[in-house]
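Could someone model manganese (II) ion with this protein?
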Amino acid sequence: MYLNSPVTQFENLSLTTAEPNPEEPEIEKAPVEVAFKSPSLPPSVGDGAIFLSHRGNSLAQQKSEELQKTLLAHRHDRQLVILQDFPDPDALSCAWAYQLIAQQYDIKCEIIYAGALSHQENIALVRLTNLPIQRWTPQTLKTKDLSSYQGFVLIDNQGTTSQLLSAVQQAKIPLVVLVDHHSIQGDLQSEFEDIRPYVRATATIFTQYLQTGLLALDSSINQHVKCATALMHGLRSDTNRLMQAQEEDFMAAAYLSRFYDAQLLNAILQANRSKRVMDVIERSLKNRIVQNNFSIAGVGYLRYDDRDAIPQAADFLVTEENVHTAVVYGIVHDEDDELEIVIGSLRTSKLTLDPDEFIKEAFGQDSAGRFFGGGRTSAGGFEIPMGFLSGSNENSAYAKMKWEVFDAQIKQKLLRLVNPRDNPIQSE
Ligand SMILES: [Mn+2]
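Reply:
Sure, complex below.
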């Protein structure tokens, strides 16, 4: 569900590299025999391995070995790496790291997402690093021959936040690799699985894979430097600029610091917010209600490309005095207004509040038993499809009425948890 991304905008096409870029050079494929390390990954592989074994991080070592075995078993395959519809820096950077690792085994990965790159920093990240990502809308999917892929991969998500999941499942493509740090969201079966909800960023997990020798980073290879920079950005953004980082995350950042480009990271972080994003933040301020230290704001309708204004507004609302948790939500619609979805983000500084539990409790499950959202430490999100009620907003009175109903319903569900009432009989 991820739910936790930042903001966006790219009507200015020069800003976006979301479309597949046929010129994107395929990375040179090293001969498989040379490229992979011995399957047993001896501790002598790279000093990172020693680093980790000092900490007794045998899980990272063991998972790296398992992943390597899986990759060996899938040499020469073509895989789809599916990200959440609105990918965040953690997802983007890890997918890239996976692609670089996998290509040593002559596995050709295409990194795809269905929604939009919706945070100014994500657009800058993709543009400045030439991050090899492609946007596949459900329409794009129809033009693709899915039978040419032997497997798919989920990174920093478990498929619940991607419109593409059902298509690859229908095409009977097997899930080969699943790496995530969100709580378990379903019963997906994956050949290789590494889900560590206590790790703050998937970038930490991938950096550990690199450290244990799955890919030897080389500062003289431009692409490695850019990928390390992307991982550093992913790690920082999922740990609130390292403020919520724990030892493992700091160790990963320390390792990346040998390779990353500080100036490039700085350029990514300097990306400015668009006016439309600023407007959504303004609406969230105006509309917020504060109860029991929760700040709740509905922001009405917003465009797909501005979807990431929601978590940014939540980031801002949670900074108010006496507020420990902020929830911001709105109805996001695509260009044709055909597809509408309620999207919300939660941010909390309250250590005892588990965003995953809170969101699952507040919104429950859909008819297929899937939760509408979930979370990780300090952040969470939800997506509620509007189905039959989507569209027809040319009638503004209708659009307004529809928003009011959703707004009231979401508020009720949230307030039920914010002001729990043990006694349903109200005494005046
Ligand atoms: Mn993440």
